[in-house]
Fold these 3 entries.
Entry 1:
Amino acid sequence: MQNPGSQTVSAHATHDVTNQPGDLTGFNAYSSDHALRDAIRTFNAAWATPNLTDLGALIGSPRMAQLARDANRHVPELRTHDRFGNRIDMVDYHPAWHELMTEIRAHGSISLGWTADRPGAHTARAALSYLWGQGEPGVCCPATMTFASIGALRHQPDILACFQAKILSSEYDPRPLPPGQKTSLSVGMAMTEKQAGSDLRQTQTVAAPAGNATGPGARYHLTGHKWFFSVPLSDLFLTLARTDAGISCFLAQGWLDDGSRNRLQIQRLKEKCGNRANASSEIEFRGLEAIMIGEEGRGIATLLDMAHLTRLECALGSAALIRQATIQAIHHTSHRTAFQRKLADQPIMTNLLADLALEAEAATWLAMRAAAALDAAPRDDGQKSLNRVLTPIAKYWVCRRAPAVLAEVLEAHGGNGFVEDHCIARLYREAPLNGLWEGSGNVICLDVLRALTRAPDSADALHAEIAAAKGLHPALDQSLRQLEATLANPQNFEPNARRIVESMALALQASLLLRHAPSDIADAFCASRLAGDRGIALGTLPSHLNFSAIITRARVPAR
Ligand SMILES: Cc1cc2nc3c(=O)[nH]c(=O)nc-3n(C[C@H](O)[C@H](O)[C@H](O)COP(=O)(O)OP(=O)(O)OC[C@H]3O[C@@H](n4cnc5c(N)ncnc54)[C@H](O)[C@@H]3O)c2cc1C
């Protein structure tokens, strides 16, 4: 009798695998991104090219694709107790997570903006963050909060001086030890409670002085809970609690100086729609030891100086998702045939790809312009005013576009896009998050309007930024006139807030593209987004546009 295992494979073959495009890997995510490279040159950060090119190679590598897959498939696990029953409140991560965390630190994605004392430092760091957003967005959460913590800790310079070097270290040290025994420190932020995330004035957690001293720099014991706390193994974290003077900001250590866990308990980890590699937890403070940071009773304002920076990161992260989705769509449709023609060459698909490429280029410029304003703010009052309003505008609009783009890109992949083997399914689940956290859409629009009404300099700076392209396209000139009318008559802002912020974002993107991008891109953007020559869905551009030029600029070149 013949052994079935000895029969040739061909005797049982059912089909050949054909017409499957394969993975888009083995490319340099920086070198192949024309819009990003142009933005880096324009905004004084060309000196960072070697670092960006180095990271770009990692982000486009098969290794990165594997790490991202593994870190999201093998999700973090909570271990509340050790085997003897002692409370430990630890989280176990897959080795892929630790490798990603090592890399994100090593490339300066946390530190560069603060440590490179030269123009363009924040712009360069923002580009690193944007590249990571295409690699594995989960690790961007701890990196972002650690980077942004400097904004809040500056309110307490003595405390910042104690920790700054380790916060900005390029080493990754995951050991559960007190700060003094570690080579680097991660910083988290725990604000959201069950009853309120946006309206932090409803904070219930209370702080009681731990000794006779009270006020900034004094020690307190905190009792209460937080409903969302990402990175529960943070070495340090900022949080909010009530004192008699109102809601104040506090800094707590994850592990106390004697090596014990600070007095917090992790109740459970969230089962999330996306961002699964990153653990987000529910915690209770049971007499948590913490130090007051900044003015007593002004805790929300103190933490907003951190949140302003994390909002920039949200815009960068969503621009990254849009870019990554767009190049995946171009890759897939360029290598898959239907009805005797490559999908990318089917006229309706070509229109969609061009529309996606416009979104990607415009998102990249807007997010990077916000980073450049942050960079220039210490040296230039006009840029400081612009930074105040540009960051929330970019956060609102770029984050709003990401889910729409991801939905189209998933569909462009057909059934393959809906299966977890492919990165698009993961990025699709990730897409709404940047819009949600660090101020959801409505809250961000209200923040823009607050900036414009309370800080007239910001309105002037916004106008100047858009007007820098005045005369370059009639549709932009028309948008500028509308903006002037809106700013001159700030009545009834709130119900129209989304509409107003959207039109500001589009005018900003158009202005940037007219000044810095090829004319095919800028003209197509103005015709479709400002003059309204399009439908509501993506892929509805007017057909006379130069789709080929627009797609070619976005495409990752074949190796
Ligand atoms: C994966 C994940 C991780 C997170 N990690 C953290 C973390 O580490 N630390 C932390 O502190 N928080 C964290 N959060 C919480 C997040 O910041 C909040 O969910 C967010 O701020 C919204 O708060 P909320 O959920 O209470 O919603 P709500 O405040 O109830 O808002 C619900 C909706 O109402 C809208 N809204 C609110 N106020 C107004 C208004 N005045 N006018 C019109 N509309 C309004 C909002 O825009 C939103 O769309 C995380 C959330 C997620 C999903």
Entry 2:
Amino acid sequence: MNERWDCIIVGGGAAGLSAALVLGRARKRTLLIDGEEQSNRPAHGIGGLLGHDGRPPAELYAAGRIELAAYPSVDGREGRVVGAAQGEGGFAVTMADGSVELTRRMILATGMDYRYPDLPGVAERWGRSVFHCPFCHGWEVRDRPLGVLDADPVTGTHRALLLTGWSADVTLLTNGPAALAGDAVRELFV
Ligand SMILES: Cc1cc2nc3c(=O)[nH]c(=O)nc-3n(C[C@H](O)[C@H](O)[C@H](O)COP(=O)(O)OP(=O)(O)OC[C@H]3O[C@@H](n4cnc5c(N)ncnc54)[C@H](O)[C@@H]3O)c2cc1C
């Protein structure tokens, strides 16, 4: 435990790095702690981020860290935060290695918990040919046969129709006996 930081940022993805940049420019003593597991790392490229369209995610994070190096009040550390306790004047933040840092403020930029279906082959294809978001990756697979895996008749129909913007060859996979009926079938085959 050395000094009291103005801010500890937990998470060094796009959100955490951006926050660190702004705080560094404001000359705030900032510690960025990151587990290096940004959610989009498996993807070949970032889709739809202005100025970085198609750029490999790891490149963006490396560039972000280079930019941050220009700001002496910002420090970075690899590791996981496992706890934080509020006390007088701020927080005591505990890392997995047992070290504790004090800070006046915290920013939680820990990202989202993406869960893909527990099906053989999905884990190794996640972010490469199995995607969660057509706006991020639909362009790269445009005009190719696409499958939508969704057992819910309402969201499945919606997603299948949405994907027809990227490909005319879309198959809705209901993962079992036909979950589709009535309106859903009519919508899909109009
Ligand atoms: C496979 C995939 C591809 C994607 N592609 C795109 C795309 O092309 N375009 C787009 O706009 N969006 C895309 N997204 C969504 C995109 O990842 C997010 O919108 C954005 O990058 C999230 O940034 P973030 O900083 O909030 O979180 P993340 O990038 O997930 O970063 C969170 C960071 O916090 C760290 N962390 C979490 N808990 C702790 C802890 N306790 N201690 C220390 N560190 C911790 C993690 O290790 C991680 O490094 C994609 C998502 C996925 C899953």
Entry 3:
Amino acid sequence: MTPGVRAEGWRIRVRGQVQGVGFRPFIWQLAREMGLRGRVLNDAEGVLIEVAGPELAAFVAAIRDRAPLLARIDSVDYQEVTLDFPEAFEVAASGAAGAETRVTPDAATCPDCVAEINAPGRRQGYAFTNCTHCGPRFTILQGLPYDRARTTMAAFPICDACRAEYENPGDRRFHAQPVACPDCGPRIWLEPEDGGPIAGAVSCLQSVGILSVKGLGGFHLACDARAPAAVALLRARKRRPSKPFALMGTLEMIRAHCAVSEEEAALLRDPAAPIVLLRTQGAALPEAVAPGQAMLGWMLPYTPLHHLLVDAFGGPLVMTSGNLSGEPQVIGNAEAREKLGGFADAFLMHDRDIARRLDDSVERAHPPMVLRRARGRVPGTLPLPEGFGDAPQVVAYGGQMKAAICLVKNGQALLGHHLGELDEALTHDAFLAADADYAALFDHRPEIVACDPHPGYRATQHAHARGLPVEEVQHHHAHMAACMAENGWPLSGGRVAGIVLDGLGLGPDGTIWGGEVLLADYCGFERRGWLRPVVMPGGDMASREPWRNALAQLDAAGLGHAADEIFSARPLGLLRQAVRAGVNAPLTSSAGRLFDAFAAVLGFEAAQSYEGEAAMTLEARAVPGDVGAYPLGGVDGVIEAEPLWRAWARDRAAGVAPEVMAARFHAGLAQGFAARARALVESGEAAAVALSGGCFQNALLLEMTIAALGDLPVLIHRLVPANDGGLALGQAVVAAARAVSR
Ligand SMILES: [Zn+2]
Ligand SMILES: [Zn+2]
């Protein structure tokens, strides 16, 4: 640090996602432009600026207005100071960087870098081009603070030309840790070798082959999305009958097959480059890409390698994660050869190691929601609402499905990446590894562990094995609290009416809940409405075979004869006997199972090969517009589905189209639950309504519920999944709230 002249000035503290995003060069350029002197540095709390000169207020305003692409500013505070300021403005050496130093998520290749790989120059065609506005971050990170030596780029000593860029504050690569060029950086190759790697990869795709591509957070399996034979081959090899495949293409390619609104285009172009669900329109892709679905999941090329591949191929690609069924995505080269060898005809490899497995995030723009939170979104943090500033450090372990870990520290919540289903041994291993990984990276020392009360969940078992105080948080209370927290609902904000429509979660009465109206604050809840419990014939089997739920629902509604007609080929007698004997027939108020049942009676699904398939098909097939609603009944807390089923039976007899019945079903649930929540707000017991649970990934249900709530204040999920992927955040804030309130 240059000693300087004593003067009065400001010390400015910037907090948020401000490290590793080109923030210091931005400040350096801004200060020079405005004729200021002083210094900028990174430290454990973020970015610290000491500055002297005229118009410091304008300087502070410009920090917010003109921040770099990847920066996210949580706060800018300043105080007046008298210090020795250098003659000019300089980027000072970083202070002792504590492990709290933020790491930013991985970011898609920026337009400048795309232009660079497409133009003559030393990085033309170079698959690892990046700068401070883009490139790998969390997926290459091995330790903190974030610098090249603690990333998987450490294996590639930087060349003189790259170092010059790295050290020049006026360069877009100033302190870009993964900066690289063909002389010093990673390289790509094709296995088996076939001409140049990109040309060979393209010829594999053109000959209806399956190509495995090493990406940012794991390997993908790719094929020509327009070739029915290629898509069918991939399904057969992956033994994945119907779960939709994700797609990759340029915006122009996407527009040939789907409608893309401005918001959707912006989301596709977001530095996070998530998979965005888009409505099909125009030329159809093979049905096998996403059987039965009206939406396709698309992402733009997000690494230089993807750009080179998609441009050379000239068409859209299926881009599905490279894994064995149920297992986590493959990240190592040797692992890929071993596990994906039976799926892929060729491998587009590279020699930069993936430090951390991250799946692609999945999102929707209308209405905005995150369905899977992973690459590009983690490790972004959420500021906790007012009242949580003094909360102790908490770690929360989520549920059994869509596992994710959440850390609370310093008034921030860090919801980790999507891990998958903990039933799978390798996913459970990944969960344990992620727990240790996040704790080390964020120097986290929890005082409290939060989890679901379900004793069978591996996450719950892990929580109790930690030897720390455990706070169990009821599944649907956690869903609702996650929604409140991401909406900034203050700790002292009063009670909220939660409509939680979900799959399965253990209730304190020992039955399985999932269609609930809760009156809750962060600390606790009352159950004020619930779908009348119905048996799940066969227990877990009922989640995979929707007709079982349909049988139970129809029998409960006195419509057993309809079940006899629709499911005549099924072993109904045996199942009814088992239900009467109470064998493997747990009770549930789950809205998810009600969705499954309704999809089954309409004949949309005989079985579901992935969770939520029947309900997704029901949503996809529902006609748009107002075609009426099936009524729900009930008095006091109980919400009866019987009137809904009777109205459906009349429609069925009258020959009403299944698509109309699907719409009436959605509207019925939306209006029935909205009425219960509205009553809690109008009586003054609740101040707002929160919508959460996996069923609210259904955009039609969400929109209809919001419409039915009219002008009431409504909290919905935007950044955190409404499904079990958001559970850990809710658990963490409930545990934190209880600790603060004690
Ligand atoms: Zn860039
Ligand atoms: Zn270089």
